[in-house]
Amino acid sequence: xxxxxxxxxxxxxxxxxxxxxxxxxxxxxxxxxxxxxxxxxxxxxxxxxxxxxxxxxxxxxxxxxxxxxxxxxxxxxxxxxxxxxxxxxxxxxxxxxxxxxxxxxxxxxxxxxxxxxxxxxxxxxxxxxxxxxxxxxxxxxxxxxxxxxxxxxxxxxxxxxxxxxxxxxxxxxxxxxxxxxxxxxxxxxxxxxxxxxxxxxxxxxxxxxxxxxxxxxxxxxxxxxxxxxxxxxxxxxxxxxxxxxxxxxxxxxxxxxxxxxxxxxxxxxxxxxxxxxxxxxxxxxxxx
Length: 288
Fold this sequence. Notes:
Elements: H1 31-34, H2 41-70, E1 76-80, H3 88-99, H4 108-115, E2 121-129, E3 133-140, E4 143-147, E5 151-154, E6 159-160, E7 173-175, H5 181-195, E8 202-207, E9 213-217, E10 227-231, H6 235-250, E11 257-261, E12 269-272
Parallel strand pairs: 1-3, 4-7, 7-8, 10-11
Antiparallel strand pairs: 2-3, 4-5, 5-6, 8-9, 9-10, 11-12
Helix pairs in contact: 3-4, 5-6
């Protein structure tokens, strides 16, 4: 039996021979890798608050120094809006106590609240205009009807009470509980739109405490005013029934009708005017 023979293989060309034995050469790491790295996170967390405080303090000091030059007295009040019921002079007088302030100290909220206490102003917008002006935009009330004897209603059903109510007697007069202003105004607008094509207008609309509605038309092209008793509910349906019957039957006799009761399920009742007694001419008496 022949023993196994070991042959030493020469290293491949271009490769360095590997050292034989227990020890081998190990490449040393660079010094920068072996030394512990400095931790700057703590310094950053400490530095940022200091920077922010310094910036805030600098901003505050700068603002304090510049404020006397930027905060000028108010030199002009610019009032805008289509004003039909109030004058520019009345507005200027109302806001006079506020104008003595400077640009940054003027009380805009107080000025707006003061303006909106004026009966004819529905909404006021107030803002600053750099460097020394205040712009005021006013929206006036739009009177649509009288509310009882002492106030007017705007198109939103909100009551306001100007002094010169005698100038608005031509407006329709609405009545109802104080809590029902908007409800009465909405009902007025609906019924008025239905009556207008037939030549009717509304002179008076009343909602009574028990919920019944009473409407009086105005004298006009359709004839003298008549009273409509509408009841508590289904007002639109009842008004349609009245207009249909009026167009077919009642139009020719409208001058003789005083009231129409629509509180029936399927019909109506007509109340006729009292006949006017002819007046006899008094004989003239001759005096000597």
